[in-house]
Amino acid sequence: MKVVIIGASHGGLQAALTLKRLDSSTEVLLIEKRTEISFISSGIILKMNDMVDELDQVRYLTLEELEEKGIDVLLNTAVTALDPERKAVIFESQDGQKSELSYDKLILATGSNQFSTNLTLPSEDKVTMYKSYPSSVNALANLEKAQSISIVGGGYIGVELCDALKDQGKEIHLIESADSILFRYLGKEIASIIEKKIIDSGINLHLNESVLGFSDTDKELFVTHTTNKEIRNNYVIVAVNARPDTTLVKEFLDLNTNGTVRVNEQMQTSDPDIYAIGDVTSYPVRNSYRKSFIPLVNNVVRSAIVAAMNVLGQTINYNMTQRTTATKIFGCYIATTGLTADEAIFEGIEAESIFVTLPCQMPYLKVQEEVHVNLVIEKSTHKLIGGQLMSEKDITQSINTLSLAIDKETTLEELVTMDFYFNPAINQPLGFISQAAYEFLIKKYGV
Ligand SMILES: Cc1cc2nc3c(=O)[nH]c(=O)nc-3n(C[C@H](O)[C@H](O)[C@H](O)COP(=O)(O)OP(=O)(O)OC[C@H]3O[C@@H](n4cnc5c(N)ncnc54)[C@H](O)[C@@H]3O)c2cc1C
């Protein structure tokens, strides 16, 4: 069996490794248009926070390791066309040489790009996005030089970048068109705590402001125009608008209405010999009526494993996603899963939510920490449909408990009575998840 994988980023690499581990006789060829592999897109943040010495270190796999495993890789090689009738891949190397080869199965792992469709962007030294290693090197150099920086988009990328820049004595603007940051992941309560931390750190937070364009871009200090403001800056990072890269297949594969490649539960496209994984496709979200484009690496690697196993005849289905995320910003761990209360309304679910602040430890201990918990339930069934946590303590693993609870349609009553541990030196008899569910029940039934 010969499997060709287009794109050697997180999805393509995981698919290649899984294929080889399942059956070492499988011929696996990765084709990648870039010159390097396995760079983590948020590498800039790790470098700025001094968690690595060099940006180039933010990788987890080398070309040599792939080759040792018997995986063939063509770098610096762009696939320019596919011929599904002949099961052929047409590609071009850096020197312009065109070649063609055939496949038994093809895995499309071309991922996503960040396009800013409505804006005319000046040169990359003024306004840019970053994701790949070369674009990250460029952005890092410009961020170091610039004294006044605007960041467009208050999602994870934008907020993590603000956090990394906050102590550098620069003028930072965070511009978000919604009325709160991280609005896809957080309810207003936790979002407003982070917003206060952002403002207290000296960052200029502009909510309800959309970027309309740029002027004076020939000058060192140019202008970013937003709905109501003119912001003078010497560098702008655009952290919005990731879009699937379907260039190679959009003429002959079925697409979803959001432009992603349509796949079944085995990640198989409308052509049974072509699978699509990672950011190029959409994922079924639990308690949502539609599949969504969710550019997160945890979806990417799971979809890659599912595709690789099915390519080799082992039927395994992609489960739902809860879009589980976690980060550390402004001294706090934040973790989210499932729907926010606002999203539940959008999905047509009558929901209720509770926001509580709870102690993590027993009151006699020297170390005292708090956790903010937001739980969202379906009103009629009490099924958990969303949860968010925030604390200075690392509570991130607990979000996986909530994700599992949502996946298994766990009710509030079950969360209160579920068997979770207690240790008097570590937590409370009702851990904070059970305690939050308990508070919810008291609020509902207390007279
Ligand atoms: C700044 C930033 C920070 C992020 N941080 C996080 C995070 O903390 N956690 C998280 O879960 N997610 C994060 N993400 C999202 C994450 O990076 C993506 O979900 C992930 O990279 C998608 O992986 P992929 O393999 O599907 O595709 P991509 O990473 O988009 O890679 C696709 C690959 O295909 C190659 N390719 C495309 N077309 C061709 C062609 N015609 N021929 C040959 N090769 C081709 C590309 O060169 C590329 O290497 C972040 C994204 C950004 C931009």
From TrEMBL:
PANTHER family per record: NAD(P)H SULFUR OXIDOREDUCTASE (COA-DEPENDENT), PYRIDINE NUCLEOTIDE-DISULFIDE OXIDOREDUCTASE DOMAIN-CONTAINING
Gene3D superfamilies listed in its UniProt record: 3.30.390.30, FAD/NAD(P)-binding domain
Biological classification of the source: Bacteria, Bacillati, Bacillota, Bacilli, Lactobacillales
Protein name (Swiss-Prot/TrEMBL): FAD/NAD(P)-binding domain-containing protein
Domain FAD/NAD(P)-binding, first and last residues per copy: 1-291
Top-level division of the source organism's lineage: Bacteria
Cofactor: FAD
Annotated Pyridine nucleotide-disulphide oxidoreductase dimerisation domain residues: 328-427
Family: Belongs to the class-III pyridine nucleotide-disulfide oxidoreductase family.
